[in-house]
Design brief:
This protein is of the alpha/beta class. It contains 24 helices and 14 strands. The strands form 3 sheets. It has a 6-stranded mixed β-sheet, with helices on both faces. Helix 19 runs antiparallel to helix 20.
Length: about 650
Amino acid sequence: MEKKHRQFSIWYFIVVFFIVLMIQNYLGRPHVEIISYSQFKSVLKKGLIADLAIGEKTIEGNMKGEAVKEIFTPEKLKEIPQEVREGKQSYPFVAVRVEDPGLTAELEEARVPFRGEVTSTWLPTILSWVVPVALFFLLWSYLLKKMGPGSGLMQIGKSKAKVYIEKKTGVTFADVAGIDEAEEELVEVVGFLKNPEKYQRLGGRIPKGVLVVGAPGTGKTLLARAVAGEAGVPFFSLSGSDFVEMFVGVGAARVRDLFTQAVQHAPSIIFIDELDALGKARGTSMLTGNDEREQTLNQLLSEMDGFNPNQGVIIMAATNRPEILDPALLRPGRFDRQILVDRPDIKGRTKILQLHAKKVKLSPNLDLGVVAAKTPGFVGADLANIVNEAALLAARQAKDSVEMADFDEAIERVVAGLQKKSHVINPKEKRTVAYHESGHALVAELVPGADPVSKISIIPRGIAALGYTQQLPTEDRYLMTRSELLARIQVLLGGRVAEEIVFGDISTGAQNDLQRATEIARTMVTQFGMSEKLGLVSLEGPRTPMFLRVPTYSPKEYSEETARVIDGEVKTLLSEAHVKVRDILASRRSALEELAKLLLEKEVVDRPELQAILKVRSIGSMKEKKGSVETHGTENSEGKKE
């Protein structure tokens, strides 16, 4: 509070100083009439000047009372005092000086007393010298104060770690759900910190470092804070980017300071989030080298080697890109333990939803297990977002509790984007979208190995989606067979083939479908060894980072001849899938027409309505089979699905 008060006092002083200057320069001076130089010469020739002071740029003086009647208008004369108009007093004036060599002679001839006057320059002097010196003095005082112990310039090399003492992290293992295996591993770390003697009595060594690896949003940082909250020890939290600055050597100094503070507060935890910003492999490219980052990484490696693990300091780090970390970081003796925080399964998602829904008023009929089944592949952050979106949607509609419909809409909003009901589509395009999505849905239902359809919509969503077909797997999957991958390709081609059959033409709406289908086919050929011509060969390295869904393309390591074979195999897979999908939809043309018509009427079709259409058509097809041998009915797989 004292510092703040002193700061305001300085501002008060500056304001008062300028107010005094204004009063002195403007308010304190008597009123002086400004006249032109020609008016001044006219009055001078008539001998009506009382006295004169000649300055560098102006001429100031007093004119006799009779002069005002000569140069001022009647309206202006009314503003002049009566004594001046009667000639009893003189009237002050100012005129801008003009180069006039004969002025002195005229003044002497008119016998006007005059004097030279030097303009005072004290104000410009203050502005040009005193004020800069004063500002420099204030700035220097501020810097000297900041250079004192514990702050300012001397703190450039200080660690920026946020320190949470004991249970101030506000997080314990009770706030963590759905990642039981990772939690069990970290419970042992808490035991190391609370009771190190238990683990050291047989000669064991407390692990120096724990690296938490997982996809974004799985709860890596939350786990680290829960460890600190459970152990009740100081928790030094910072990001990998906090070490690196524009000054070379600053990051290394911060690493040294961080470890010094952690040892002083031992037992303690150092947590480095986004370790890949600091620990990227060294020397991978001459173009992307960074001396400051490499020096910081070298200092981190030496500090991890130098301190005694029995001091009770444990280093925790989190990253979603372990594949780019420097191998020296991952060797035993540095990050001894690597804990995977994977995407939760259906049981884990249910627990996470229950955890986030504690503060939300749910409908008694709502089953969070059903919500968990509809969100395969979602991580903790996604599920927390869905719970929040569902609560906001229910509140917007003034409901008393959050219902299943709100969760469905929240899931669709997260997956497909915001619903654009006001988006106007012309009837022709809307009809094309309806048949396109109907093609996806029918193929998904009729091809063995494809995920069942949950909902079909032709309401535009997100940035460019004019419609979508939502498929939900019946269970969590970790492996895919060749037939299942082919089924996915066929489902993706269903929309394009439906347009071909119905309109005899194709649109640009299948662009994303073709990209995904081609990617699956190429991956089958080049990575999974699912090509008969190429055999059991993996021709490309990983095309995506381990925990990120962003494709990366590695340089090819095979001949041009092999590349031609790969292209041929990819085209073969797509062509064969195209033929099968065309056969399926051609034989189910009536179901395609009926589903598209229903979509145009309702815009959204749920699974029960889709099943009803397929069931009716299946019964009709069976009757036609019995009555006529020429009827083509090839959908035996439909009976299995129904």
